Amino acid sequence: MQRIINDPSLVVEDMLKGFVMVHKDIIHVHLKNPRVIISNAAKNQKKVGIVTGGGSGHKPAFIGYAGKNMVDAVAVGEIFSSPTANSFYDAIVEVEQGMGVACLYGNYAGDNMNVKMASMMAKDDNITVKTVVANDDVASAKKEDSEKRRGVAGEILMWKVGGAKAATGASLDEVIDAAQKAIDNTRSVGVGLGPCTIPANGKPNFSIKEGTMEFGIGHHGEPGIRIDKLASAKEIAKEMYNLIINDLPFQSEDEVVVLISGLGATPLMEQYILFNEIENLLNADNIKIFKAYVGNYFTSLEMNGITLTIMKLDDELKECIRMEVESVGLIQIGE
Amino acid sequence: MQRIINDPSLVVEDMLKGFVMVHKDIIHVHLKNPRVIISNAAKNQKKVGIVTGGGSGHKPAFIGYAGKNMVDAVAVGEIFSSPTANSFYDAIVEVEQGMGVACLYGNYAGDNMNVKMASMMAKDDNITVKTVVANDDVASAKKEDSEKRRGVAGEILMWKVGGAKAATGASLDEVIDAAQKAIDNTRSVGVGLGPCTIPANGKPNFSIKEGTMEFGIGHHGEPGIRIDKLASAKEIAKEMYNLIINDLPFQSEDEVVVLISGLGATPLMEQYILFNEIENLLNADNIKIFKAYVGNYFTSLEMNGITLTIMKLDDELKECIRMEVESVGLIQIGE
């Protein structure tokens, strides 16, 4: 295992120390719970609190999205495993300002359970928590079972929309509705070309033969829908695009957000090459790119692979996407 | 070779198409030379033009640093090889506004030759070009041969300082002096844990045995100073720190910029873990971190490894580091 770490069981602790120091202008750590990261902007205005959380190893997700007009507090789990209910609860309490808290997270068993418990604990404190559960990964279950689908990079767009809506002073129900619409309008799919290794395990999380790729792989290495011969960027783009477009019917003249994320070891160069192919496909269908994001936005340690996310927009979503943001993982200067 | 590309000989072309489309709010491509990327902000004020250039495969370097208060135009080479003299020349002509052009680039034979030719061509057009050649990599030659040292991630700080100085309306000589001081005050060192593969070659650029690391490796895989047993983050940090501190004497109460960059496949988590150790070492020496950058700022395709860069500050450099920046690779909001 070729890693720059100290004790493999303390990688999250060690990482958080560095993260908090480097980004002290944007975030700080919870006074009593080192597994909760809070946006410095969280208390600057009376608004609905935005909370998320998830396993570590996906950097800049999740903690990198704490910031102004984005997420207010993030519960931090071990590598690829859910934060505790207590951490979600501490995050919720920290950002409650009398308007309730929107917990916007991904569809994984541990997160579901712990958010549910944290919401019950918060209820005892008279804090109203409502949730949106991201399920944008089209490859993780059939369309008729979409409530079983995993949340992947589309979560970033859900946070962007929820965070922007909350920043306008909207009510909890309005924030929840916007974030729910965001994820309902978003589809993602991933392709894996190489595995990653969780430090505490020391073994790769899956294996993939040289010259092949795994289509529909999850961002913890969950099995995909099939293993294919490694194809060209053009062919990979076409496959990914079709999986998404057939799941969420887009129409000519639609406007979309395209988000391409490397999974860790895939060079930015390849991400731009894939983007170029996706743009060609969208152009051919007369679908307009309103905003594009390309980079390592949601990773899986050093996995070699890429995810494509497309979100269909309406006026409300466009306004939310346009809003300025200042977080570690996403900085967007206002227009 | 596990890559998401089309024709291996066209990766730079394909990448640039995607890059230009995604970031059209920040940069555009030269009208006649597709190998020159220009900041949209370049013509907004009368000032010294800032040019750089280098091989591809280091993304976000070099093109990601074109932007407001940073680099005005970037000449783009093939993977790991110099841009042509013509591309440097086109970049220079594009950003000349009567105050001369500062060409701030890294110390590699091809770049040296092509910048020299481009400067001579520009002279025939009555454009004054002055240069600063980055040589921050302490492991690439002994101190007494520091003019032979390679430029690595310290180039980002040189561009930051040169770009900021130019934005204040400073003269060409003032910009050159500030950029030269920036790189003179900057030292870097890299560690490699795994190789990368240039698409057109199809073979890894070096080999490194599992359980070992190469100290002082260059960011094209140039041989380092020794191969060691893979150590802990704490030990790696100590080694890197000592190499730098012994080369550029720092004193108690100095203020510094710390820049840690992953080389491609090294997870952000590990970069923050290394930063945490570097911070401890600086604290022990009573050296203060004025600004820290941690992330994939200067990569080598999917190389597994990390670089540490430290820059010693004075008041002028601090002012330049503080200035807001809007580029793809570095966005910094003004204070």
TrEMBL record, chains A, B:
Protein name as it appears in the record: Dihydroxyacetone kinase
A matching Pfam family: Dak1
DhaK domain mapped to chain residues: 7-330
GO molecular function, one term: glycerone kinase activity
Record's keyword terms, sorted: Kinase, Transferase
PANTHER family: TRIOKINASE/FMN CYCLASE, TRIOKINASE_FMN CYCLASE
Gene Ontology CC: one annotated term: cytosol
GO biological process, one term: glycerol catabolic process
Source organism: Alkalibaculum sporogenes
Transferase keyword on record: yes
